[in-house]
Amino acid sequence: QVQLAESGGGLVQAGGSLRLSCKASGTIFKIDDMSWYRQAPGKQRELVADITSGGRISYADSVKGRFTISRDFPKNTVYLQMNSLKPEDTAVYYCNTDLIDLQFRRENYWGQGTQVTVSS
To answer: What are the distances in angstroms from CA 11 to CA 18, 85, 101, 119?
Structure first.
């Protein structure tokens, strides 16, 4: 089994910063994509940022220039640095990963989610 452990959420004022972390552990052979999604109350879950095993990065238009995704490959960890936060960034943030496990099966896993609240 694979576990994704997220941390770093919290309450911050508008204009502030937070850094989210997500560490994957367990029966992992190789991790491909690592991503951050978010879901605000009453809205659908949306992709925030993604980083591939080759280091290719993509962002949602709403966070470009403010958020930075990065990855520590040896530690199987992905980070999301969030700057210039806005109230509309308030959501539960979820880590997601595509990987190949030790039985060489391709699997997709979600973290438990971490709340980010931005006050105005």
So the answer is: 9, 11, 35, 7
Q: φ, ψ for residue 63 (rounded to 5)?
A: -120, -5
Looking at residue 76, its pLDDT comes to 96
Cβ atoms of 38 and 91 closer than 8 Å: yes
Under 8 Å between Cβ of 52 and 71: no
Three-point CA angle 30, 54, 61, nearest 5°? 115
pLDDT band, very low/low/confident/very high, at 3 (cuts 50, 70, 90): very high
Alpha carbons 112 and 7: distance in angstroms, whole number: 10
Q: Are 83 and 17 spatial neighbours (Cβ–Cβ below 8 Å)?
A: yes
Provide the pairing of β-strand 10-13 with 106-110. Answer: unpaired
How does pLDDT run across 37-75, given as a tens digit for each residue?
999 999 999 999 999 999 999 999 999 999 999 999 999
Give dist(CA 111, CA 104) in Å, integer. 21
